[in-house]
What does this fold into?
Amino acid sequence: MATEVGEMAGQIPLVDYLVLGSDPHLVANECTSCGARFFDRRNACASCGATGFARVDIPTEGEVRAFTIVTFAAPGVPVPYVAALVDCGGTSVRANLINVAPDPEHVTLGMKVKLATEPLGADSAGTEAIGFGFEPAGN
Amino acid sequence: MASDDLWILGIHMTKFGKHPDMDLVDLASEAVLGALSDGGVTMKDMGVIGAGNLMAANAGIGQQLQKQLGQTGIPVYNVANACATGATALRVACMAVKSGEADMGLAFGVEKLSGAGLLSGGSRGDDGDTWTPKGRYGAVAPVDGRIGTEIMPGVFAQIGMEYGHKYGGTSFELFAKISEKNHAHSTLNPLAAYTKKMTLEQIMGDVMIAYPNTRPMCSANCDGAAAAVVVSGAKLRTLSQEQQRRAVKISASVLTTDPWEEACQILPDVNTLTRNAATQAYEQAGVGPADLDLVELHDCFATAELVHYDNLMLCEVGGAVDFFNSGATWRDGTTPVNVSGGLESKGHPIAATGIANVWEVATHLRGEAGDRQIAGAKVGLTHVIGLGSACGVHILEKAA
It folds into this structure.
């Protein structure tokens, strides 16, 4: 994917639907026929079958509709981590909850969260990958 | 019996658990020979085979079985449909018999999963030397654990939590109580992989896998097989009185996939396709949820069982928590659910599950369930769901 305007040189997003820069946000492919939104590369719309899509920005604030705290994962995946379904103004997003203690006292259903980015390290060419998660909106 | 009715003539399941000395074909053979013998028929009577196996789906398990039990030249449909694989194999036999292409069909499902551990989420390899976008999301590195979770205990945990967010009333303890019920039920099932009663404290205090699912709240990976012989009403009429007496009517046989809805490609939606399958099944069978004497539903995790009370319309919309708390789903309740012990204790050898649950219900309808017999059972429902997604629902009725 072409580098988005505003993206800092030497950085690359973890996935191509994360836009970096001064105002990091997610983008979706929205069906121009029925409005269904998707985060992956599309062949057609799974809802209506049309093939036209437009890129739309996803709100960076949302509400946790479901979560789990994973404490047992495949080798190489650090635990614990909080996986969640976040409702961003009517568009559902899968993400980790970050910058919050991974326990049911601190993570609750319905909590308000906002998008945050985090560095994942540099590769051999010095390019730094940037991931995202959602943190408590009060942070 | 109407000519185009579908009936289970013979059915069998192996003991679920560890079978280190049996390979896939040994396990499948035991189930198939048991089902044929139970129905008083042989491979020569079969007109079609629906063969289910997931983890070695490219190996042609149907033909491997034929090479041991009888190469009669009939069509084999090897199927793989995630955790709905067994129900899909049964659907193949049902469709072939219903269409008149065969008057008798065999379906079986077999899996060897002992010691398999997590079945997904293992995609987290090394990050590689350079960040290079790959795949449909242009991901520069594996995303399991970085963008949510791929592991099933975590996916289904969120499905239960989402129900709680929508309707309220859920808690770690509530989900654990569902598991307590199924483990208690398993003590009466000699074919279950685990038959140990567990206290609520033991369940909640066990190893946490993905909150709120602890280990005993997850389905047990194990080995096992199940098989069924499906016969048309017309053919059954030509068989013996004893075969007719023990035959179990398949009043509904339904398979659905998930229709697109917002969020369904973010967190799998196991609800709509189950509700759709149940709606179609009740209509086909001409029965309603209140008519069910027992239900075997897909409790791959304790968090999943709760949502399926609602999806199968065993309770009012949003009423699953109250329904469970009323005691309705215990074996002495109004709608006994998973009296076999369910996937959490009976075990979940994936492709076998969608036929083993039919065996469980059929055995009660025949009055042959021994110590765990649900007295006077006349109608039962089975349900499986495979992520991706596919949902199989069968409604069975005792012979009149």
Q: What stands out?
A: The mean pLDDT of chain B is 96. Chain B touches chain A through 51 residues (CB under 8 Å). Residues 6-115+220-398 of chain B form a domain with the Peroxisomal Thiolase; Chain A, domain 1 fold (CATH 3.40.47.10).
